[in-house]
Specification:
By secondary structure, the chain is an alpha/beta fold. The chain has helices at residues 10-26, 30-37, 41-49, 56-66, 70-81, 95-109, 128-137, 142-156, 173-177, 183-196, 247-263, 267-284, and strands at residues 88-91, 112-117, 166-172, 202-207, 221-225, 232-236, 240-244. The protein folds into 2 domains: 1-85, lambda repressor-like DNA-binding domains (434 Repressor (Amino-terminal Domain), Orthogonal Bundle); 87-284, Endonuclease Chain A (Endonuclease, Chain A), CATH 3.30.870. The protein is built from 12 helices and 7 strands. It has a 7-stranded mixed sheet with strand order 1-7-6-5-2-3-4, with helices on both faces. Helix 1 runs parallel beside helix 4 (56-66), helix 4 (56-66) packs antiparallel against helix 5 and helix 10 (183-196) packs antiparallel against helix 12. Residues 1-6 and 91-96 have low confidence and may be disordered. This is XRE family transcriptional regulator. It comes from Saccharopolyspora karakumensis. Residues 19-73 form the HTH cro/C1-type domain. GO terms for molecular function: DNA binding.
Amino acid sequence: MPVDVSAVTPRARALAAAIRTVREESGISGRELSKRLGMSHGTISHWETGRRVPTPEDVASLLAVAGVTGEEKRRLVDLARHASEPNWLAVGIPGIPQQLAGVVECERAASTAIEWSPMVVPGLLQISEYARAASVAANLPANEIETRAMVRASRRELLTRRSPLRFHALIGEYALRDQIGTAEVMADQLVHLRDLTARENVTIQVVPSLVGWHPGLVGPFILYEFPDSPATVHFEHYSSGAFVVDVVDVQEYRQAIEAIGKLALSPEASAELIRSIAEEKGTRDE
């Protein structure tokens, strides 16, 4: 069955993940759900995998069967209503959970991801203790901290699965020298980065401080390349974020990656710098 072209937008990917989660949390099997909705099991399966986008009316019916009401129902129906729109801007904290779902689905579907992260270690490369320390510093509720830590751990599996994501991280030197959590946590995080450099599907390059202006100073972003759909750029701010698929905009980010890459250390020199800073952190904690 061909993929619906509207199903490859970031919103559509987030909707597919939400439908899958709603069904699993309701305890209803896919076959039982399709029976109650009067649809084929294949249709429900295509919704959950993102091969097809359900109408807002279909989503409302599904949510009614699953017992989802109130704000969550309104959010998912609205997501379905705008699923075919390519670019996606969410403003305010309520938009972040949807965007996180979109990010996770983009990561799962992508063949390659290139991330520029000037101030913190990229999410896919974070150890649980580092991610937890960042969440604690942000004063998040305890239950949300643990949920985010679990999501982070599951995302890391993308780098070690049978057909792993090819991930190229361009990291600002500041992200390695700043301290998130204790010095021991930072040392462990840096050792983890150094170990990851041995993986064929992971490339880590450090961009030194004091190299002057470059397009990366505007802010962090991630470029996802897919085998079956157009490339997507995602960037996130404190309480808002956006997915962009416009061809011209994506090309601008490709050029930004090229410019940043020219300033970065080689993978070998980056691994050596990471090792050196890890040793400094470890010594400082003794």
